[in-house]
Amino acid sequence: MAGIALGKIGDPRAFNAVTRMLEENDGRDPYLRHAGVMAWLGMNDSVELNRLIDHSHLDVRLAAVVALRRLKDATVARFLKDEHPFVRHEAARAIHDDFSIPSALPDLAVLLTDLPASSQSDEAIVRRAISANMRLGQSVHAQRLMRFAESDAAPDSMKLEALESLATWNASPFIDRVVGRVRVLKGRNPLAAKSVLREGFQPVVHRAEGALRSDLLKLAARHEIEVDQSILAEWVISDGMEPATRVRALARLTDSNDPGLLEIIGAVISSEHIDLRIQAMRSWALVNQSQFIDYFNMNSSEWSVAEKQIALDLLGGMHTERSADILRDLMMDLQQGSLDSSLELDLLTASVKHGDAELKFQVKTYRETRSETYPPGLLQGGHYDRGRIIFDDHVAGQCIRCHDAGGADKQVGPALKGIGQTRDRAYLLESLVNPSAALAEGYALTMIGLKEGGAQAGRVVTETSTDLTFIKVTGETVRYDKSDVMTRTVVKASSMPPMLGILTPFELRDLVEFLVTWE
């Protein structure tokens, strides 16, 4: 309180006393550091604060930086070269974050190419230095960003950040890529980045190694940046290149309709990497449908399920008589029970997508013969990894929220890990599309009416003679005195909504595959 009082008084004669207090505290009590900062803030003496730049105590220098930040004093930039990263970080935040200290941004910006190699992986500094150059927005700043991206010492993630900044130079509204604040930028040169990126991007791509190559191609596709076709072709056919890079390079060549594309496709269509084979199929179907159909007829019996699924989708999008003939024959196989069940959903979807009247009739007839309560084709053919992503991250599905939230006593729904050991695919799918059909024991929906008014839906977890623990359908756990609970009704219904209206059929198929194999 004394330090804060000194700040209100603003007597500069107490400056050294505050310094001694911070020396003795030596970082142990952050409240004392705050008191020291507030005291110096009231004294408003940047000259004295700058004399602390060589002070031996780290906590004193940190407090000086924070005080200068609160004073919006540009001399805080002198601390950017402090020997300790904590001080450097605090100085960078002072200049860049929140409402910033605009007059100090040039000092932060120039640091981008002045950092020693050992400090170029310091993201707290580098990200803000990149952002400072982008915000200042002149030709010299665009050139500095490109020089950094070309540097061998710069980490790949920061090279990409610098190039992304150049690619989004004129984005509006401008959202600060470090702190997420919308900023109004004035006096920038809107043309500064275009020529720099056009001239400098290709050399960066040429020298790139590892995963950076694939990331650069993603960036180029996202922002329509030209890439040398000959380099892309070389990457596609190189067995020593990472598969993800080869896939993206082939996709890029396809988008640009490279004149040598068919030859390149022929070189990789039998690659040992399935993702590259699939991209080659996609590219071939785009540039020459007739050749792709010939290739399908000759080779599809040897393909993996994933390749056949992609091929069916491609055939469905062709809208030609030859593709319709193939799909009609496969529909006959499906009706006779001789088609691999992993392809059922893909074939039905492709046949509808094609638009052929006979195909539509075949699909309609087939569906009318099915007795299951769920759509056909969802039991087999899913993908575990895609199913995992749906379970964990699907915004509307919210599976993880109720089924993997810390154990049975902390979540609304039953734990599902290992359920494939006791339940088959049909049960799991039925539970997804009609959750109330077969409720897990102890997980029926309970409605309670409260003495104070209102009602809650959820599940009773534990109960004693005096109280009960209740998990609401929102996932919140609460405890009620039994005397406050007026009514309790167990409803033979699940709190989970039917997933068919929330997930697509393909997502449901992937989720079933994940659940049945998750251990």
How would you describe this structure to a colleague?
The longest helix is centred in the middle third of the chain and has 16 residues. The model has no long low-confidence stretch (mean pLDDT 90). Among the domains are: 191 residues, Leucine-rich Repeat Variant; 71 residues, Orthogonal Bundle (Cytochrome Bc1 Complex, Chain D, domain 2); 47 residues, SH3 type barrels (Roll). The chain is flat. The chain is built from 25 helices and seven strands. A five-stranded antiparallel sheet has the order 6-5-4-3-7, with no helix packed on it. It is of the alpha+beta class and 519 residues long.
- Average of the residue pLDDT scores: 90
Enter the CATH topology name of one domain: Leucine-rich Repeat Variant
User: What's the CATH C level of one domain?
Assistant: Mainly Alpha
| Total strands | 7
β content, as a range? 5-15%
Indicate the radius of gyration in whole angstroms.
Answer: 32 Å
Per the principal axes of the C-alpha atoms, what is the gross shape? flat
Structural class of the helices, strands and pairings?
A: alpha+beta
Q: Summarize the biggest pleated sheet.
A: 5 strands, antiparallel
**Assembly type:** single chain
Distance between the termini: 57 Å
User: Biggest sheet, strands in spatial order?
Assistant: 6-5-4-3-7
Question: So how many helices?
Answer: 25
Which residue ranges are poorly predicted, with pLDDT under 50 across at least 5 consecutive positions?
none
Helix content estimate: 40-55%
Return the CATH architecture of one domain.
Answer: Alpha Horseshoe
